[in-house]
Amino acid sequence: MKKSILFLFAIFALSTTSYAQRGLKIAYVDMDYILKNVPEYQQASTQLDAKAQKWKSEIEVMRNKIDDMKQTLENERPLLTKELIEEREEEIAFEEKKMLDYQQEKFGPQGSLIVSKRQLVQPVQDQVFNAIQEIGLKREYDYIFENSSNALMLFSADRHDISDQVLTMIGRNARLSKNEIKEQEEEKYKSVEQAREDNQEEAQRQQERQEREDERNEMLNERQRMRDSIRQARQAEYEERRRKLLEDRQRRRDSIEQARNNNR
Question: CB of 112 within 8 A of CB of 55?
């Protein structure tokens, strides 16, 4: 903050000598005020908020599912074998990783939220900045500062506020000529193409997630088949031993009975 103040003082100090003859012409814009009064920006923000809320809800569903799995495991732990406990823990770890990957995919530095914000908001911001540039050149302002919640303006007189002029300029620029409409349609087509590419990338990521989940399910099924096979083999071995034991017991009985009959 101190550096910003010193920078502003340096600008005014250097400019005082250069423009002493005609005086310094300065203005500022309230970016928060401008964006609140641009319908396109408000619509874009609403769309973005809806998307973000949807993703947060999906992540919350995943988190609740994981919590339920953990609670169920703790409740059933005394009744489970070591193998079943390890299998449940693997399932929980898999679901946790899936949730974290999805969270990073949506809210990470290169996630869908950042991409969507750029696609929805950037055109409106560009329009605002272009209007500021045009006003600055036409009216020969030396400096146009920003006065908003994120900017440093210790004091600003209302007479230097050109925010409404920017809004007027944006409204006038919205009435496009035929050539400009054509150019806009071309840009819109490019945006559609970009959106299609983004959707394809999203579909690819979903397919990869599904493939990983299918692979994991197949591994679990194979493990279950092996356990069933071992269990069946043990059962068959037990039945065979039992059969032989019964046969040996029956032969001894028959032998004893035959010996008794012979002694009679």
Answer: yes
Q: What is the pLDDT of residues 239-252, one digit of tens each?
A: 888 888 888 888 88
Burial bucket for residue 136 (CB in 10 Å: 0-12, 13-18, 19+): middle
**CA pair distance 102, 248, nearest whole angstrom:** 64
What is residue 258's three-state secondary structure? helix
CA distance 11 to 143: 10
**Residues 234, 236, 241, CA angle at the centre, nearest 5°?**
95
Give residue-wise pLDDT tens across range 161-199. 888 888 888 776 555 444 554 565 566 555 656 667 777
Using alpha carbons, select from 225, 25, 258, 10 the residue that is nearest to residue 145: 25
Helix H or strand E segment including 26: strand 26-29
Residue 109 φ/ψ, nearest 5 degrees: -55, -35
Enumerate the domain spans of the chain. Answer: 26-179, 195-246
The token pair that represents 60 in the structure block:
């919350």
